[in-house]
Every structure is written in structure tokens, then in C-alpha cells.
Amino acid sequence: AQSVTQPDIHITVSEGASLELRCNYSYGATPYLFWYVQSPGQGLQLLLKYFSGDTLVQGIKGFEAEFKRSQSSFNLRKPSVHWSDAAEYFCAVGARNNQGGKLIFGQGTELSVKP
Amino acid sequence: GAVVSQHPSWVICKSGTSVKIECRSLDFQATTMFWYRQFPKQSLMLMATSNEGSKATYEQGVEKDKFLINHASLTLSTLTVTSAHPEDSSFYICSAGGVGNNEQFFGPGTRLTVL
Does the pLDDT of residue B97 top 90, yes or no? Predict the structure, then answer.
């Protein structure tokens, strides 16, 4: 069955430090991959996505993610975290065979930023 | 990017009443919309896929008679929580798009509180 795992429920980093949020997926083929961010009480904003091509994907707000097929991972990174990055981050996978566009979300990682 | 709105942003109702939540794609036509439910500190759980002009497809375990979905036009889908009970209190999020490249655009969410 398809699944997405975000091993870290909560991460705290200092402002200016680097960040890596982990995402592992289980899927029969190469899926579409997404990272979303959610501020409290808000909807989801797309940070970046991977469909094909270059496995290092650049997104908004200085985020990037790397698709590693051998590890079934799509980890999110940022070289220098800002206090405004504190939020909930969700990794998601979608079916390549266009199963109506359904997405499966990971459990989410809450990011706290220390001053 | 595409804009999806939800109305209302929050609603408080008495147990036993029905509540309707609207999801609109403001600047594009969406043949497919999705409804998610999110409990505090948890991930998004897909409830159903709403297809314009046809019946919604519900995920396993979601009561179709309790969560009525109507997708009457290419820009509007509605979710009606019938005979709401306190356990239905949650954050409901809709999204639109997703067909083809699987990119979904999310609404800001609706906070439902049932007293």
C-alpha cells in the first residue's frame, strides 16, 4: 500500500541554522512528490514538487528537496532557517497513473525556530 | 498560482444541525475537488473526491450519508455535514485540481465546532 512517513514529529532549530526534514515513501513506482507548509489555522501552501527530471528541486522561500530513488526519500532542506519558517510541514505523494489526483500525506513535522 | 476559497472560515453549531461548507476555485475550472479532514496536530485525511457532474467518491470509513458532497459546477463544491455531533468538530480543507500533474491547490480551511 502507498504510504508516506515523516519520522520526525517535532524539530527545533536555531535561527540561521540549517534544516533537513525527512520524508520516506512507499510506492510501487516513482510517484509525484510534494512538500507543503501549513501555518496554524491555515490551509496548505506548496513549497515544491517533483515530477521528473533533475532530482534536486528548488522551491519557494529558499527550500529545496532531493529525490533519492534508491532510498525512497524526498527530504526537504534549507541552508538557513528564519523565524518565519516555524510551521507544520507535510510531505505528500501522488499517483503517476493519474488516479484522480489523490494525494497521500505524511504525518507532518512541526518546526520550531529558536531565536 | 490558482486560488481556492472556502466559506465559512469558521462555524459553530449546535449538535443535530447541518452545516454546509463551500469550496470555490476562483480563477480556474476544477473538474475535480477534494475534501480533507484534519484533527489537531494531525495530518490531512482524504474524505472524498468530488467530480463535477457526478457522484463523489468516498474513502473507506467515511459515511457518505453524513458528509454530503455536491459538485454542481466547475468552480464550486459543497460539503454538508448532516446532523452534526461534537465528534465532527474538525478542520475541513478542500483542494482543487490534481488531475494530470497532480498539483492541488488548497483552500484556507473551515474550522467546525459542534457544541
Answer: no
